[in-house]
Amino acid sequence: MMKGRFLAALAAASTAAAVAVASAAPTLPGDIPAALRPAAGETLAATLPARGVQIYECRALAPPGAELRYAWKFVAPEADLFDGDGEQIGVHGAGPYWQTVDGSRLVGEIKARVDAPIARAVPWLLMAALSTGPAGRFSRVTSIQRIDTVGGASPVDPCTPDLTGVRVRMPYSATYRFFSLF
Known about the structure:
The chain is mainly beta. Helices cover 10% and strands 47% of the residues. The protein has one helix spanning 2-20, and strands spanning 43-61, 69-82, 88-93, 97-100, 105-114, 124-131, 141-151, 167-180. A hairpin with a 7-residue loop joins strand 1 (43-61) and strand 2 (69-82).
C-alpha cells in the first residue's frame, strides 16, 4: 500500500516537474568551465537541445563490513534530440549513446564533470565520443559536452526497503554540443 501511494505521489510530482522543465538560458562558449572545454583542434559540429528523463532505481547497498543501506542509483538516460527547428532528429540512451535518424551513432565516456549552476540539475559533462554506426551526421564527432541542464537529479524522497526495485523517471533538459577534428 505504501509503495502504491509513493508511486502515485511521485508520478504527480514528475508530471509537474516535466511541465516545469525548460531549457536553461543558453551558455556562451566563454562561460563553459575550463574542465569541460574540448581538446585543441576540435571544432563545434552541432548543438542539439534534448528533453527526456534520467532513470533511477531504489537499490539495497551492502559495502563489505558495512550495514545494509538503500539509495537511488542512476540507471540510464532517455531523451530525444532536436534540431534548430524543433524537429526530433535523434535519441540519447543508456551506454551512453546518441543516435541520429540517419543511423550514425556515438558512444561516450565521461572525461570531466562539473556541478550544474542550478539546483537539482544533473551535472555538466565532457565526454570522449566514439562512432559506432554508419557514416552520417555523428560519424566524425570526437567529443560531446552536456551543458545547460535543468532537472534530472535523483529523487529527494528517501529510498527505503519497501521501495527496492522501484524505478523513477526524473524529467530533464540539456544542450548537447558535438565536436569534431574536422
